[in-house]
């Protein structure tokens, strides 16, 4: 899928804008040019969102799609003939990732001593999002001084995220025991990264914490003329069916260890987080 991603992003901007991401952040489909999105972590107040968006913009471009049958959030594709085969390749990869997601969810259920299909039964649609990402080459100094950012620290708000990354690196995760301290997640050939999301944290009653992560200048990056190389990644965001009510699972709470979270509608939480990004 990386070869298709590179072919898509190598198109002229005018061609990519033939599949534009809508102005609303709640319709996460289509192409977003650099600077359109500003990721935030639990900011919902209008004034706070305005302050966040006034900071250095996230220097990245993206394309997003979901299942074709999603009437609530229809896909936005390039017109026929602009990049033949791209739509078919993206959808094929989407469904392959869904099969991997179910395997991971079954393993998690077994780990919690729950029925194997406990989490899978909440992920049937799937209400998921495939995102192709390109981080353009930028000056190392600008990244180190926060003049620009690739993506700021945030957690993913779904259940899990399956992340494919190229060889460039730059992904970092926060040490849960030392807030503010980030450690690199170097690319390992033939592997994927699985991030825990906010819903898995709620289901597990904080047994598994959602991962605060960001993208910075790769440590030991090969810098040419002061420029950090471009980076490609492909996250597959896995979320529960919108009709799901997420509540801590049996066995994760007791009289001595009460529930940390009230039941929450998956649809309401997802829409709130999406709207805060655009």
Overview features:
single chain, 278 residues, alpha+beta, Jelly Rolls, six-stranded antiparallel beta sheet, four-stranded antiparallel beta sheet, 7 helices, globular, metal-binding, oxidoreductase, Clavaminate synthase-like protein
Q: Could you estimate the helical fraction of the residues in percent? A: 10-25%
Mean pLDDT: 90
Briefly note the CATH topology name: Jelly Rolls
Category from helices, strands and their pairing: alpha+beta
The strand line-up of the biggest sheet is 1-2-3-12-6-9
Low-confidence stretches: none
**Tally of extended strands?**
14
**What is the alpha-carbon Rg in Å?**
19 Å
Largest sheet: 6 strands, antiparallel
Describe, in plain words, how this protein is organized in 3D.
- There is one protein chain.
- This protein has 278 residues and is α+β, with helices and mostly antiparallel strands.
- The protein has one domain: Sandwich (Jelly Rolls).
- It is 24% helix and 20% strand.
- The chain contains seven helices and 14 strands.
- The chain has a six-stranded antiparallel beta sheet. It has a four-stranded antiparallel beta sheet with strand order 5-10-7-8, with no helix packed on it. It has a two-stranded antiparallel ribbon with strand order 4-11.
- A hairpin with a 7-residue loop joins β7 (171-174) and β8.
- The chain is globular, with a radius of gyration of 19 Å.
- The mean pLDDT is 90.
């Amino acid at each position: 899928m990386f070869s298709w991603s590179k072919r898509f992003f190598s198109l002229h901007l005018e061609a990519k804008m033939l599949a534009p991401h809508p102005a609303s952040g709640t319709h996460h489909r289509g192409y977003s040019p650099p600077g359109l999105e500003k990721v935030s972590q639990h900011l919902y107040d209008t004034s706070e969102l305005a302050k966040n968006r006034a900071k250095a913009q996230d220097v990245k471009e993206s394309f997003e799609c979901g299942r074709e049958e999603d009437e609530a959030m229809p896909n936005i594709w390039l017109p026929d003939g602009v990049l033949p085969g791209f739509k078919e390749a993206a959808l094929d990869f989407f469904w392959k990732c869904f099969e991997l997601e179910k395997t991971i969810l079954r393993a998690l259920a077994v780990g919690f001593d729950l029925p194997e299909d406990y989490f899978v039964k909440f992920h049937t649609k799937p209400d998921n999002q495939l995102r192709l990402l390109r981080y353009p080459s930028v000056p190392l100094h600008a990244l180190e001084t926060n003049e620009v950012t690739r993506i700021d620290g945030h957690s993913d708000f779904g259940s899990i995220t399956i992340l494919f990354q190229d060889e460039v690196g730059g992904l970092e995760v926060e040490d849960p025991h030392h807030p503010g301290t980030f450690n690199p997640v170097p690319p390992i050939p033939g592997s994927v990264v699985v991030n825990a999301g906010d819903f898995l944290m709620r289901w597990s009653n904080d047994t598994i914490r959602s991962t605060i992560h960001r993208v910075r200048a790769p440590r030991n990056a090969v810098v040419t003329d002061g420029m950090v190389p471009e980076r490609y990644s492909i996250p597959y965001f896995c979320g529960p069916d919108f009709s799901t009510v997420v509540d801590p699972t049996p066995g994760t709470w007791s009289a001595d260890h009460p529930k940390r979270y009230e039941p929450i509608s998956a649809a309401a939480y997802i829409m709130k987080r999406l709207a805060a990004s655009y």
